[in-house]
Amino acid sequence: MGRTYRYRKQRQKLANEHEQIKDERFLPDLYKYLSSLGWRNKSQLTARNFAATGRGLCSKSLTLEIGSELINLPSDALLSIKTLENDEDFKELFDESKFDKDHKISFQALMAFYILFQKVLGDNSKFLAYLKSLPSFFTTPYFCPIAELQCLPENILEKTVEQNRLIKLAYNNLKTVIKITDFEVQYPLQQFRWSYFVVNTRSVYVFGKQLKSEKSFFQTLITEDCNLALAPFLDLFNHSDQVTTQADLIRNSQTKELEFILTLESCENSKIPPLQQIFISYGALTNLKLLSEYGFFLPSNRHDYFEFSLNDIENFLHTEKTLKGRVFHKNKFKFIREHNLCDQMFVHCVEGISHNLHVVLHLLFKEESYFPNILNQVAFGSVENLQNVNEDVKLLLKFKLNEYEIFIKSLESIKTLSKSGTVAKSYLQECHKYLNDCIVTIAC
């Protein structure tokens, strides 16, 4: 009971930290738009503001149980490659003669540009009701100002830098293949960043070939399969690690039309009463993944673990006072990198350390030899031959604990944090708590 109460209080605090203005007046128009495409609100879904998460969905009067369809959208309601291929006005923007291997873009980037294109159309957009339902900002670390980014851990910075690289590359390639001369004026980079994260945070997976259009204008422009779509209204569901859901794009046996169906597979108490928020699962995602891709995290996330990089290990070896004067042969680090043992090095607060972390710490702290043939025998031999490294793990965890305390204090020293910075600080505090829990587990 105590843990559940703390969990709810933490969720409420997080919702307050990155709350957006929730204007629900878009709902009637969105209902009307989806109904015109054949959608029937069988689950009696409606949007409400919830203390723990902000805006979410619930059923007005139905109790939903395991196996219940949460939502059933006709495929025509999805914004997919078929939508883009059938939009002649959108295709008119592109100079097909410039489609070549040097200016390809991902389908996510193309979909992001389509959302921006529709936003620029304003009241003339046929997706106006959907556009009004989209958030006006996102709280991923990507949107942190530089001063805040400088206070964040390396793993978050690396992800943010990669996102920025992909966004700028896509934007520049779009600028090349678009006919209009004032591209940057009509479609500013800052707005493209917003639309990129609309797609990043709200798209659903679909098998692209099921929604394939008879037209193939964009085929030579995009770099990958078109296995994502935007799903109006469905994207108002919030994520929880306490539920599992199944998404399927299947053909209705009576109408023969494709439908995107989301089904409840499991949840707490096996049922969801009316007016209680309905959560879905985005997948078994860690808090780092949720933060960097979606802009939030879950307190006490059951899918979470704390991952280490080889740089973390090397920094630890250089700064840990009890290891002063100890030599760690470069052959060991070379062996670890060449055999990808530095992947999946993590600790779980219940299950303990991963196999790769155990092997790496054994090679560094317990194995005297640095010859590759001996290291190979140890790393890929019997698990029983690996010595206990719990004391080394505790030192490593305390090292990261101190590091995260510095990150948190650095953010706290900034007078006014952005919304992204505020969420990032809360995430670091959750990591700090998680590291403490791991130390307790290892000590037992």
UniProtKB/TrEMBL annotation:
<protein>
    <submittedName>
        <fullName>SET domain-containing protein 4</fullName>
    </submittedName>
</protein>
<dbReference type="InterPro" id="IPR050600">
    <property type="entry name" value="SETD3_SETD6_MTase"/>
</dbReference>
<dbReference type="InterPro" id="IPR046341">
    <property type="entry name" value="SET_dom_sf"/>
</dbReference>
<dbReference type="InterPro" id="IPR044429">
    <property type="entry name" value="SETD4_SET"/>
</dbReference>
